Amino acid sequence: MISSKTNLFSVFLKTAIIFLTSFQISYAQRPTIDSLEFYKSAIYYPHKDADIAVAITFLRDATEKTLARGDTLQAVGIMQALITGEMEVGSVYESEETAIKAIHLLENMPNNKKTIRLKKEIYRELGRAYRLLKDSYNALYFYNNALALCESTLDSLKVINNMGNVYLDAKEYVQADTYFRKTYELSLRLSDSLVIARVLDNLGNIQAKIDNPDALTNMNKALEIRLNHNDLVGTYSSYRHLTTYYRDNQLTQEAKFHAEKAYEIAKEINSPTYIEDALTNLLLVENNPRVMEFIRVADSLEQARYSTRNKYAALQYNTTKAREQAQEDKYLREKAIRKSRNIQFLMVLTILTATGIFFILRIRHKRKTLQEVFETESRISKRVHDEVANDVYRLMTKVQYNHTDNEALLDDLDLIYKRTRNISRDSAALIIEKDFGKQINDLLQSYQDGEITITTQNISSINWRVVSEIKKRTIYRVLQELMTNMRKYSQATMVVFSFKQNGRKLHIKYSDNGIGSDIKAKNGLQNAENRIKAIKGSFTFDSIPKKGFRATINL
Fold first, then answer.
1. Cα 448 off chain centre by
2. Same structural domain for residues 450 and 538?
3. What is the per-residue DSSP string for 71-109?
4. DSSP string of 239-276, one letter each residue
5. Fewest Cβ atoms closer than 10 Å to its Cβ: which of 100, 143, 401, 429?
């Protein structure tokens, strides 16, 4: 029997252990989001006062972990609930500090619908914090920031209502009345009766301060709507405002009636905060001097504690912003200095490079010029030797041995003169004349004699004014080389040049009826081709034995 009981107990114990273990594992594996939503709900809808304190501890830890994970947006969402919780337990300084930290994080994030919404709500909480600290200036500053981000009528109404309460606290009743009237106008755009009731209650309360006869009517309308909707919190607010109204107007019985009603609603809400406030109103209605003095002193002490605890987090935030701005300015100055130095370095490097290139090109140009001079001198020397010196030597031999008569002597001298003139013309510096067309025509016709006929077509139709000087020089020298090549090799009796112009484009065609040949790069043609290519033109030629020579120049 004992053994059976022992076995049953053992089975029960093992089952219990497995159940508890599985429950712990299941609880440990619940997503963080479940816990976050649970503790956020505890902030906004606490079942008991301790719920908010526990939620604050959890949310502070969750904020740090989420920031360490790099999820800034979720961290700010947690901080939003944390701000409200800290405000509810009276930690206004901590709430203010948390809100400013959240705003700082949001300012470093790109604007989108979610970040703008969070920023708006946190600005509202900051306004609320400064209102509790009796700092109207900063409260209105942050409420204005929140208002600028509102997109819906309801959001705007809530913020404007908050701003009206700031003026109410400061006893600037006319200003407060302006804001509450604005909220009433906005509420009429909505179909929410409870919103209209809240606005009417606030409007009636401020109207009572400025002796507006509509005050009581508006507060009673609000109370009626709230009773019909069983809005306990709203109903408490209506009874409280009516108590104040009747007390201020020395209507003690009516004030006591509404104070008792407010106390009953506070007990139904079951909130120590509401019950404390309701009891305070009941005591105020009694108008006991000592009670009044006690309440006044208690309020003063509470406000003093708030003021003492306030470390001016906004000032710290501004100081941090100023420090960050100073660091950014320093970084920008250093960046500008580095950029300036880089620019100076590049300028020096560019100048040195340009100077180096200049001298290199100058040296190359000098060498090229010297080479060209050397080649020109060599060419002239060779032509003088081949074409003139030999003829002069042959003529001297004839004269010495009397192998020639005067007529033949004159012919030989004329031939030597023409060859000398050609050498001079080919080697002389080229001066471009104003009438370049005539200058070209004269050049070509100078090669014409009794054996060779030179024909030019359309040369007079060319507008040489649109042709650059470098192109004119090139055309002159290339045509000169073509004619020289023709005289030396082609044995042609007919040469034709055709000129054509399209805008700034120039086309020149050459053809002769010479003996032609298998083209091999002769020096004259090679030089002509190089000259044309140097000015981005093209030079093509072809020659077939016994069918003449043709060339085309395109510039």
1. 73
2. yes
3. -HHHHHHHHHHHHHHHHHTT-HHHHHHHHHHHHHHHHTS
4. HHHHHHHHHHTT-HHHHHHHHHHHHHHHHHHT-HHHHH
5. 429
* Nearest-angstrom CA–CA distance, 12 and 15: 5
Instruction: Give CA 362 to chain center in angstroms.
Output: 46
Q: Do the domain assignments include residue 166? A: no
Q: What's the number of domains the chain is made of?
A: 3
**Do residues 406 and 467 share a domain?**
no
414 and 437 share one domain: no
For residues 459 and 528, state if they share a domain: yes
414 and 441, same domain (yes or no):
no
CB 265 within 8 A of CB 279: no
Q: Could you tell me which of 132, 131, 124 has the C-alpha nearest to residue 150?
A: 124
pLDDT tens digits in sequence order for the chain, 555 residues long: 334 444 444 444 444 443 444 434 333 333 355 788 888 888 877 777 678 888 888 888 888 888 888 888 888 888 888 888 887 777 777 888 888 888 888 888 888 888 888 889 889 888 888 888 788 898 999 999 999 999 899 999 999 999 999 999 999 999 999 999 999 999 999 888 999 999 999 999 999 999 999 999 999 999 999 999 999 999 999 999 999 999 989 898 998 999 999 999 999 988 888 888 888 888 888 776 766 677 666 666 666 655 555 555 445 545 555 666 777 777 788 878 888 888 888 888 888 888 888 888 877 766 665 555 555 556 665 666 556 666 665 666 666 656 566 666 666 676 676 667 666 555 556 678 888 889 888 888 888 888 889 999 998 888 988 888 888 888 898 898 888 888 888 888 899 999 999 988 899 999 998 887 655 545 557 778 888 888 888 998 888 787 888 999 998
Question: In this structure, what token pair is assigned to residue 307?
Answer: 């003021």
Alpha-carbon distance of 89 to 100, in angstroms, equals: 18
Does a structural domain hold residue 366?
yes
Task: Please tell me whether the overall predicted TM-score, pTM, comes out greater than 0.70 for this model.
Answer: no
